[in-house]
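re: the backbone from monday

yeah here it is again, tokenized this time
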């Protein structure tokens, strides 16, 4: 019997700058390493609120926010990625995250996720705008009206709530985070370590 491939949990927030970096490179790295990705979109807002924060720590601590923007400029330039900081930041990612849940069920989730990050961090688009999300869906060739209608029912809202609660239970406090078996890694700069942990058994 063929052995199953190791699986890497990729926990990402659709409004996260550093998740953008990881989403644009994780598939190539995982493929080269013989690792499967389990895409886990969630929202950081409730996790931040549990820590007493009403917004991103990059807004609470302005020096940290300025550093993040400059680091994003450096890293995206090194990797040949476009970068434009959206306003406001962070964006409201609820609709995008709900669509991503559907997309991962139906096979277009990774492409949708990359397109959301590109719209937001390459072009400064507002991903809380259903028109922006609808244009992304059009670009993927999926049913825009039907999918936008599916993001409102309570069942999908509950799925996203449960996903975020799962993240909290795992000890996730930021994005991107990577779960390699029982080992948690935080930050785009830990992606290679998480993959190596899976390869080393």
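seq for it, each position gets an aa:
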């Amino acid at each position: 019997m063929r052995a199953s491939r190791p699986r890497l949990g990729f926990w990402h927030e659709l409004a996260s700058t550093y998740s953008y970096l990881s989403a644009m490179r994780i598939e190539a790295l995982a493929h080269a390493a013989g690792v499967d990705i389990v895409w886990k979109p969630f929202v950081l807002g409730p996790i931040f609120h549990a820590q007493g924060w009403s917004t991103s720590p990059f807004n609470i601590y302005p020096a940290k926010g300025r550093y993040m923007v400059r680091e994003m400029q450096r890293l995206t330039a090194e990797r040949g990625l476009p970068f434009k900081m959206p306003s406001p930041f962070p964006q409201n990612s609820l609709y995008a995250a709900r669509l991503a849940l559907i997309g991962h069920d139906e096979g277009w989730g990774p492409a949708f996720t990359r397109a959301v990050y590109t719209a937001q961090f390459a072009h400064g688009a507002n991903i809380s705008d259903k028109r922006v999300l609808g244009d992304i869906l059009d670009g993927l060739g999926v049913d825009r009206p039907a999918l936008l209608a599916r993001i409102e029912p309570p069942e999908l809202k509950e799925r996203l709530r449960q996903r975020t609660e799962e993240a909290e239970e795992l000890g996730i406090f930021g994005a991107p985070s990577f779960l390699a078996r029982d080992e948690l890694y935080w930050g785009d700069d830990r992606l290679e370590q998480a993959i190596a942990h899976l390869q080393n058994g």
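DSSP finds eleven helices and four strands in the chain. The longest strand covers residues 7-13.
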